[in-house]
Amino acid sequence: MSPAEEERSLPLPERWPRASKFALSACAAAVAELVTFPLDLTKTRLQIQGEAAVRRDGAAGGPAVPYRGMLRTAAGIAQEEGVRKLWQGATPAVYRHIVYTGVRMVTYEHLRDSVLGRAEGESFPLWKAVVGGMSAGAIGQFFASPTDLVKVQMQMEGKRKLEGKPLRFRGVHHAFLKILSEGGVRGLWAGWVPNVQRAALVNMGDLTTYDSVKHFLLLNTTLVDNSVTHSVSSACSGLVAAVLGTPADVVKTRIMNQPRDKQGRGLLYKSSMDCLIQTVQGEGFMSLYKGFTPTWMRMAPWSLVFWLTYEQIRRMCGVSSF
């Protein structure tokens, strides 16, 4: 049998390992996103409430919504807008994770195994895991930033309707086209800098912590590669990711949601640094952790659902372990 014939006889996951990991990651991420999306919507609404720039400039029109906390915000959305609105913006969120999670997983494995040189079954220095995780997150988020922009803006549509403002979009594809027509291709990447910063920090907490904790448990305890190990690793990664990523997430959400002029320039913030300064000066340092509770409560189960789904599908399809 020739080498070409031998290669064609191999199972698909062995012939196309990176493509298989991309597809596997995208499927697992879509499941995790749909299960935990109401917490993401609640987080976004909390991060927008009480913006100092809005109170000063009156750009949003009407009084600022009082900070109500996670449970009251979620209950308010369900009562005032309907339970289905808890999943408003879920479609672009799934699109985002197909791109973002697929790219970051494949990139992290490539960096870890081919660039940073981790050998199978050996411990991996933490600094290398951090470099790989942050780089993979930044690259994945840059490509997925347009879908994140649409998701954030669609998540605020229900609030605009309650305030008597006209809705901006008829659906996901209309949102993409409208943003593109108003701001050009660059407009689709509005807020990409804090978005990439957030993704790098979140991945330093998520991928790096999950990978490090999982391999530490396998190498230094009696635990084996099963759901218990995955659950412990997921809980740790969700907490670290929420602590590191929430401030950048607040800045990213506000920049993406701000009104823009005909040239696509923001009317409230000049840059991510300007948004950070205005937020801290106007609302205090802890305002950078608005939405932390739903962020944490979402990241932990999201990570758990993602990794359990990922590992389950991986075994069914015969894909190599992460």
Automatic annotation (TrEMBL):
It catalyses: chloride(in) = chloride(out). Solcar repeats lie at residues 20-114, 124-216, 225-316. One of its GO terms (cellular component) is mitochondrial inner membrane. It is a multi-pass membrane protein. InterPro entries: MCP_dom_sf, MCP_transmembrane, Mito_Metabolite_Transporter. Its main location: mitochondrion. It is found in: Mitochondrion inner membrane. The keyword rRNA processing does not apply. It comes from the Eukaryota. Keywords: Membrane, Mitochondrion, Mitochondrion inner membrane, Repeat, Transmembrane, Transmembrane helix, Transport. Pfam families: Mito_carr. Homotetramer. Facilitates proton transport across the inner mitochondrial membrane and may dissipate excessive proton gradient associated with oxidative and metabolic stress at neuronal synapses. Regulates glutamate-induced proton conductance in astrocytes, shifting the energy metabolism toward aerobic glycolysis and lactate transfer to neurons for ATP synthesis. Can transport chloride ions with lower efficiency. The transport mechanism remains to be elucidated. Belongs to the mitochondrial carrier (TC 2.A.29) family. This is Mitochondrial uncoupling protein 4. The lineage of its organism: Eukaryota, Metazoa, Chordata, Craniata, Vertebrata. The gene is Slc25a27.
